Amino acid sequence: VGRCAEDLFKGIQSADAGVRCDSLKELATVSTDVTFAQEFISRDGHLLLVKIVEDSNDNVIMTHTLTAFMELMDHGIVSWENLSSVFIKKIAGFVNAKPTDASIQQVSLDILENMVLSSNSLFLAVKHEVTMERLIAHLQDMFAFLNKKNLRQYIYKNIIHSSGSVQDEMAHYLYVLQSVTLNHLEPRMRMPLDCYNPEQREILHNLRQAAFETESENSLSHERRRSLCAKEFKKLGFSNNSNPGQDLVRTPPGLLALDTMNYFATRYPDAYSRFVLENSSREDKHECPFARSSIQLTLILCEILRIGEPPSETGSDYHPIFFSQDRLLEELFCGCIQLLNKTWKEMRATQEDFDKVMQVVREQITRTLSSKPTSLELFKNKVNALNYSEILKLRQTERLHQEETLAPPVLELKERLKPELLELIRQQRLNRLCQGTKFRKISSRRRQDKLWYCRLSPNHKMLHYGDVEEDVENPPIEALQEKIPVADIKSLLTGKDCPHMKENKGKQNKVLDLAFSITYDVEEYSLNFIAPSRTDFCLWTDGLSVLLGREMSSESMRSELEILLSMEIKLRLLDLENVTIPDSAPVIPKPPSNYNFCYDFSQTEQ
């Protein structure tokens, strides 16, 4: 290795141009080996390459020299910081120039990117030589030649290193760069599928074959193969299963939808097969159609990313993820089509809910991108955490904000109204207890359970109860022989804490949510209840809590309180429609310096 390094070190200094060119070409190849790189750099070979770059004007020599230099520096053996200003200007000149030699510009961008990352001083030096306007002006010309990701990353790093007003001003360039780059997808988006194009038809059949393991189709008759294909295209989610190409005639998204489906199937074959097979095994009404969903999802992504729209002169809304991800549309599609399947299951959707699901998915994507994720992985984590239930919560919160029911003054008004409305609910609960309720007794025997009735006296001092017959609906208090003074009630128990739930474990699970008990006479005795319904349970436990001087805690009370508050607030805000409610009260002005403007009534009396 040392001998090879020495030979090439001498070869690149040869007076013979042919020998020098061949040595540089070989050096560009062998510099990928770290052992060779160490030997060559120990001879200050990298500094010799810098000198060649500074002095040479030959494109072939320059290509091999820059490639060899980049490979050597990529090993991290020496720092990037000791580069001369002449070298930086020369590299920047290649980036600024028209793309006459694509290989030189590509490796120059790689070198500039590493400079920007290595130190702030180098970043400032590069920024001084390569302006944003110059890079963006050349961007469209460089599409066919450059590794665009390098250019995007360089420009993005340039702008995020800026600060203050410069950063705000340069955000427009990020937006333009994103728009110009993504718009190269527009021709595919505007082009419908050609049913007679053999290449496009082959992609469609590859999608089908990748999803379903079928017997050899060559041995089948024409009719049998046609029937099999139609059946599998239907399972794949195409509306026109006999001629699936018809589903892709609509533009947009046109052929772009076929591209995204094909990318997903080839890039993530396991996820693709899992999606299709999982849905083809569901009941017909609950299966998520892959093809139909993919076409609509591609259209949604095109609209969100504004593919096909010319960049606005004042636009500044860009996505940081664009600057760190190649093939952004395709990768977003692969993540979002799996999100769509997840959301479909969360919503328990059927074919009739297709548009509703797509609206939710659009909202999930839009909300996640608005948080400016900087990488694809971060986007996936955020968008999957934003499930259907979270979307519903966000919608409810935003609706309340829109109605101004979460404005601080309104919240303060709510707190003032609560005591009055809670008292209204308390009175309703006590009135309900005065009306009484028919309960069933738990019996360990198989015979029909007995019925009994309990009601509160009108003066709220006694609980009257007693056995009743099936056909008795509302017995008078006099007919109920037993009674318990409210003052003797010691506690209210619910659920598994009730004595009759501990005694009748066989029936416990069935009625646990409906069971409650009151204890009285120093907790030696208890009256045990099984409510006919959850509503009755809430009414009675709330009413008994009121009698005991405790807070009501049932879900029914919370729901009713929220309804009453909402109605009362809306009634009180009727006169303030279209009037913005401030977050804080207006400032009270200082009192006047004198009160001479008041009328003096004393003189009139005289």
What is the radius of gyration computed over CA atoms, rounded to a whole number of angstroms? 39 Å
Outline the biggest β-sheet: 4 strands, antiparallel
Report how far apart the termini are.
122 Å
On the 0 to 100 scale, the average pLDDT is 85
Number of domains: 3
Number of strands: 7
Secondary structural class: alpha+beta
What fraction strand? 5-15%
Globular, elongated, flat, extended or rod-shaped: what is the shape?
elongated
Task: Describe, in plain words, how this protein is organized in 3D.
- It comes from Salarias fasciatus (Jewelled blenny).
- Residues 199-369 form the ELMO domain.
- This is Engulfment and cell motility protein 3-like.
- The chain is an alpha+beta fold.
- The chain folds into 3 domains: 1-148, Alpha Horseshoe (Leucine-rich Repeat Variant), CATH 1.25.10.10; 190-399, no CATH class; 420-557, Pleckstrin-homology domain (PH domain)/Phosphotyrosine-binding domain (PTB) (PH-domain like, Roll), CATH 2.30.29.
- The chain has 27 helices and 7 strands.
- The protein has a 4-stranded antiparallel sheet with strand order 1-2-3-4.
- Helix 7 runs antiparallel to helix 8, helix 13 (198-211) crosses helix 15 and helix 22 (408-435) crosses helix 25 (534-547).
- It is elongated.
- Mean pLDDT is 85; it is low at 140-147.
